[in-house]
Amino acid sequence: MARATKILRNFYRDSVSLMQLSSMFAKLPGVEQASAIMASANNISLLKEAGLLGGTIEAGANDLLIALQGQEEALDAAMAAAEAALNQNPPPVTGNGRSCGMAPRSIEMGLGDMVGANLALISTPGEYAAAEALKALSLGLNVMLFSDNVELKDEIALKRFAQARDLIVMGPDCGTAIINGIPLAFANAVRRGEIGVVAASGTGLQQVTCLIDRWGKGISQAIGTGGHDLHRDVGGISMLQGLKALAVDQSTSVIVLISKPPSPEVAGRVLEVAGGVGKPVVVNFLGADPEGIKHPNLFAAGTLEDAAAAAVALADGRRPEEGRPKRPPFAIPPKLAPGQQYLRGLYSGGTFCYEASLLLKKDLGQVYSNSPVDPGDRLGDVWTSRGHTVIDLGDNLFTRGRPHPMIDHRLRNERIFKEAGDPEVAVILLDVVLGYGSHPDPASEMVPVIQKAKDLADKAGRHLVVVGFVCGTSLDPQNLSKQEVALRDAGVILAESNAQAVRLAATVVLAAAGVGKMP
Amino acid sequence: MQALFQEKLQVLNVGLSSFAESVARAGGTVLQVEWAPPAQGHQTVCRELAQLVNLPAIEAANRKAFDAYLTAQPILRGIGVAGKVLPKMAERMILHGGPPIAWENMCGPMQGAIIGAILYEGWAKDIPGACALASGGEILFEPCHHHAAVGPMAGVISPSMPVWMVVDAAHGNQAFSNFNEGSGRVLRFGANSPDVIDRLKWIGQVLGPTLRAGVETLGGLDLKTLMAQALHMGDEVHNRNVAASSLFLKRLIPALLRTTTPSADIAAVVDFIAGNDHFFLNLSMTACKAMLDAAHGVPGSSMVTAMARNGVEFGIRVSGAGDQWFTTRAPVVDGLFFPGYTTADAAPDLGDSAITETAGVGGFAMAASPAIVKFVGGTPQDAIDNTTAMTHITLGRNGAFTLPSMNFAGSPAGIDVRKVVDTGIQPIINTGIAHRKAGVGQIGAGITRAPLACFTQAVSALASAMRSSQ
Q: At B195, is the secondary structure helix, strand, or coil?
């Protein structure tokens, strides 16, 4: 097996474009493995680990490195083809408002072409993101900071700087937002309406906005804050800004607040402000005690689904408890073999995984995870499940050097097949996240492996139950109903939400153990 | 943030281009920034840069510096002798092009020119003697720029050489330069043979005094107006000076004829100027130096006030950074070579002439001079594109230097180190290429770009200055 490398100096491309190019290069004749990356020290060490790189490479973060491995006689032609593809493939310039001449190279230069710009959506590598965000704020722009790996002290500094200028920083690590009806980053196409959301959780925000859409209501604004906003040292700056903005927004009549486990003192502060905004506020702080929420304007929701249902009911002028979603009928009697007893949740959404851990703990007892509710339930080897296990495949441990599982299904597909081979597994639990930025047709990736997994179990005299839910809307590019039909046809039992899917899966396990009854 | 809800969302997308596509697909307004890590990926500088962007103190300082540059009125006042009119010129001092450099580190052409200057001054009898003197530490070598002076290529000025004297009538500062000797075997390319020394002597004895009399009769000459006219006639007054030289001669001849100068001298001087299409270059450079010195020394300003090369290093000076130079290795210019020469023969970039680009002419005014792009096999559209690109790294436009092919827009001027580092767009420079060996002369011409490293250093220096002033 031969290797070839080529360095293109000062030839920057973003990481998603490079992943697309890498997979294209890997399909060139005679090529076994291929990678096109920016030659940062970190990326070079990844390539070395992958065996694509031998000697030392003199290159920097602005140099593009192509590394190929394959049949020696094919590599020259493959490299030439790769280079030609890169040169043919300038980064697309979209949008309007550009005057003439060269594309903007900086935020300030972009402002020259788009004088009315009011938000910078920043998704550079994390080590540069804080600087870009500071520039945007200094130039008077609100910021959505998708990038992760931004230090907490930078987050605090940026948010304080923004607050002093009446601007907001959504993020860092903010995966999704919907502002003035425009979905940003990994957001869904939901109808507009009167419910405003502020969320310190990307998939949490997606779940709530999609369910609200599914149940006939719409979204005024959905503001992401990034997952650390309710950290003690950040103090919920962005959530408080978003809350106050929605409080005076005439298009918003109901507000939903979502967070992964917040710092108790910050949660207290946020709830205090929320109680006084003069609008009903639904609160889902994962893992927080609903008893702590006593104010007459505040409505505690135990799950994302409950939060969405409560908001929809309140928007209709009903009491939130009248809005409880109905449980779907669960008519398929599983023919489980003796010994099939465990649940394996394979999640692409971190908040879904955490919510599953919380719910399953109550029903099933110990549930192992790479992001456990209790530190004692941490999975030692994330690549091997034990007992009941739920895994967040979007964890850095899995995404190092590869795209997020919402985009690239390979890793989860491998894991589905692996779990199917385990005779103790009764049920596999899956999330499917649609929307802008996600895979264009996730069902097409999942159906073949689900069929293979079921066949494997069948041949071994078992029955594998696959439970899932699709987080999306009918307006999403992937189309919710098309995805649901394809998955149902493949034998997946679909619920409307994560909470319902988790309960269904737990029911299967309990039924197998003879504890519960099939409904 | 509430204001955002009342406006139409307009997104600048920095990073993953797929996000811009999504926003556009959802009916939103979005512009993709073609982002790459600034400052060659140095994270510390990226952060320092971010702290300087749109900083009120810097914006105010830049307005002040840029305004001084715009309002400067460079007037040719006369001709003097360097040792007498340059305030800090010492008896045994030789000035050179570019940032400071020690004798032993100088490139071939610069050493050759210094040897020529020593012979011209009569400090040594022959080349070995001149070498011994130069390396012996008895002669002070200083950049022209430390003396309000500029010189093309080697940029050598010794005490008894005649110099142009330009004054900025608006601010009172003076600027100086040596005289252009023509092409071929000349001192500025490191030649020091007897014919070169003889020409220098003629320049000192005939050309200088004759021009002094002519300029006196003229009562001074407004250089800015003359340069503006030349821009309308196809010059960019750096690498093409044929129109400006002609205009200068047109103004000079009637004045010379009114002096008492012997007609043989007038004839020789007119012949000499008429035979050198680059004669005006040194005046263009002096005028630019005067305009930029007016802008220099404003605390907090990120405006570049000099770009200069010594054949080894490229250096810049910044208004708010005082006497500091920010230097890096000088690039080798890639351009068109005269027959028989290649890049291998070329000296790294050399001379103070990039002062023209610093002042918004030269490469920055390339749109005025389509003929120049032929040096790199380009088209007139390329010339316009080059000028347009420079608008993104400059503080404004100079309304005195208008560009006919761009609907008489002013030429972009006032390079901002922050914008250079933020966009990665490097200032463009039109330049001649010297042979790396002394005395061979010019072997080509082309377009080069100021290296980014100088600008990233300047950003760091400004950032630390801002920190300590807070």
A: helix
Q: Is B453 on the interface with A (CB under 8 A)?
A: no
Q: Which domain holds residue A21?
A: 2-88
Q: Do B10 and A116 touch (CB under 8 A)?
A: yes
Residues A414-459: tens digit of each pLDDT? 999 999 999 999 999 999 999 998 999 999 999 999 999 999 999 9
Name the domain boundary from A323, A354, A374.
A323
A 143-202 near B (Cβ less than 8 A): 146-147, 166-168, 179-180, 182-185, 189
Q: What 3-state DSSP class applies to B290?
A: helix
Number of domains into which chain A is organized: 3
Sheet holding A119-122, edge to edge: A169-170, A142-145, A119-122, B10-14, B29-33
CB A255 within 8 A of CB A282: yes
Task: Please tell me the predicted confidence (pLDDT) of residue A346.
Answer: 98
Contact B33 A92 (CB under 8 A): no
Q: Which ipTM score applies to this complex?
A: 0.93
CB-closest option in A93, A94, A123 to B15: A123
Q: Kindly state the helix (H) or strand (E) to which residue B84 belongs, with its residue range.
A: helix B82-85
Q: Are residues B27 and B174 in the same domain?
A: no
The residue assigned the tokens 């088209």 is: B379
> For B303, which DSSP code?
B
Question: The CATH number of the domain where A16 resides is what?
Answer: 3.30.1360
DSSP states of A28-39 as a string? STTEEEEEEEE-
Task: Kindly give the pairing relationship between strand A492-495 and strand A31-38.
Answer: unpaired
Task: Please check whether residues A357 and A314 belong to one and the same domain.
Answer: no
Who among A10, A166, A189 is closest to B26 (CB)? A189
Q: Which of B16, B53, B425 sits opposite A135 (nearest CB)?
A: B53
A17 shares contact with chain B (CB less than 8 Å): yes
Shared-domain flag, residues A391 and A272: no
Q: Do A117 and B17 touch (CB under 8 A)?
A: no
Minimum CA–CA partner of A163 in chain B = B1
Query: Mind listing the pLDDT tens digit for each residue in B454-470?
Result: 999 999 999 999 999 87
Do B268 and B400 sit in the same domain of this protein?
Answer: no
Q: Kindly state whether residues A492 and A389 are assigned to the same domain.
A: yes
* A504 occurs within a structural domain: yes
Q: What is the pLDDT of residue A98?
A: 37
Q: What's the rounded Cα separation, in Å, for the pair B47 and B60?
A: 21
A&B contacts, CB < 8 Å? 241
- Domain shared by A375 and A451, yes or no: yes
Q: What is the DSSP string of A269-307?
A: HHHHHHHTSSS-EEEEETTS-GGG---TTEEE-SSHHHH
Q: B258, B284, B310: which is the final residue of a domain?
A: B284
User: Vertex B207, ends B204 and B210: CA angle to 5°?
Assistant: 115
Q: Could you tell me which chain A residue has the CA closest to the CA of B391?
A: A109
State which residues form the domain around B179. 70-284
Q: What is the pTM of this model?
A: 0.89
Regarding whether B348 and B224 lie in a shared domain, the answer is no
CATH code, domain with B395: 3.90.1700.10
Of A14, A111, A179, the CB nearest to B4: A179
Same domain membership, residue A481 and residue A391: yes
Q: Which of B6, B7, B11, B460 to mutate to test the interface with A (most CBs of A within 10 A)?
A: B11
Torsion angle, alpha carbons of B54, B58, B64, B68, to 10: -100
